Amino acid sequence: MSKDIAFSDVKSLNFEDFEYLRLRGRLTAKQEEEYLSKASKSDKAKVEALASLEISMEDIPNTGDVNTLPDEADDDYEDWSKAELVEEINARNEMNGDSAPISPTGTIDNLVKRLRSDDGEGEA
Questions:
Q1: In the predicted model, what is the mean pLDDT of residues 44-54?
Q2: Is residue 22 a part of any domain in this protein?
Q3: CB 10 within 8 A of CB 35
Q4: DSSP 3-state helix, strand, coil percentages of the chain (rounded to 5)?
Q5: Greatest CA separation found in the chain?
Q6: Considering the entire predicted model, what is its pTM?
Q7: Counting C-beta atoms within 10 Å of the first and last residue's C-beta, which end of the chain has fewer, N or C?
Q8: Chain-centroid distance, C-alpha 79
């Protein structure tokens, strides 16, 4: 999931939106300078403090919300037991309701393919 921030003037961003875009590398150095030229002292201090931590999106674990990047192909579904795969599929089906349920039956390979397909990484 990503956050769509529409802006024509970087100076109009609030701190949270600025930091969201900055962490994802979606701002140029000039845009960062423009934002900081109008930012309050406390926002400037926050930006400096966060920048000194050298945080990148790769360092933030994926929680499935707009504040994290999706996990790449570093899932470990192959290491999961069949029971764990079925449990994950059932949890997703429960969360998604009746919209496109994932079949929890079949071989481990098929279950892994279905989970990856649901993750948007592969084909079922």
A1: 77
A2: yes
A3: yes
A4: 55, 0, 45
A5: 59
A6: 0.41
A7: N
A8: 23
